[in-house]
Structure prediction request, 257 residues.
Amino acid sequence: MDTKIYIYRIEKEYIEEHLDEIASALPEWRRKKIEKLRRIDSKVVSAAAGSLLYHVLDKEYGINPEELDIKEGTKGKPESDKLFFNISHSGEYIALAVSDKNIGVDIEYKDDRGGRIAKRFFTEEEIRFISEEGLGEESIKGDSGMVGYAADAESAERVDGGAETQKRFRKIWTMKESCIKLLGAGLSIPLNKIPVDPIECTADVSGFPEYKMDKVHFMCFDFTGEDEKGYSVSVCTENILKNAVKYIQYYGCIFSE
Prediction:
């Protein structure tokens, strides 16, 4: 099985109007997750994510969702013994990654205009990458060995930049988040403890021997949504290659025409 990515724009109005009907068609573990949520927006997103997963499994892989034993792992990450998948949501879009290997995916549209997130969670090298200095390859690699430094004040001040700066911010942010999701670590590993290399698209996780991995790899891309927001997506596996992702498929709709 190849690693594949599916992007879906949530049909919010339709799903909210037919929420009970849509949720009833999902498996028990997903229904319970929807029921626990309080806000209607959260319920809609959860129903959309579950519907995308089962739509893809049925239409793309010929897998009957009812025959697939999916359960939540110890850290809340859904698991199956037949394939690996991971889901992420941001704004109006959901990203789903399906693979024959353990995988993590993250999608994000939010900017970091004030630089608060980067200053708190990014290493010195990562901040250099998203600042004005970060246009060249040498700026991300230095003598530090990609360990977690606090950013120097001069670089940190330049975090609050334009569209390209924010795109680089989202790339690093989604790399870190997708790595956490790959590991299934939840909130047990702070993001600033996972330094990433956005040039080589790798991260060194050898500092966490309990996960039995030394290095993870990423496939990253950007797109502009129909909501005119810029989105970044990162997919993380232990040994992904850029040409291993066969295609990225966009689902404009599942329920409505």
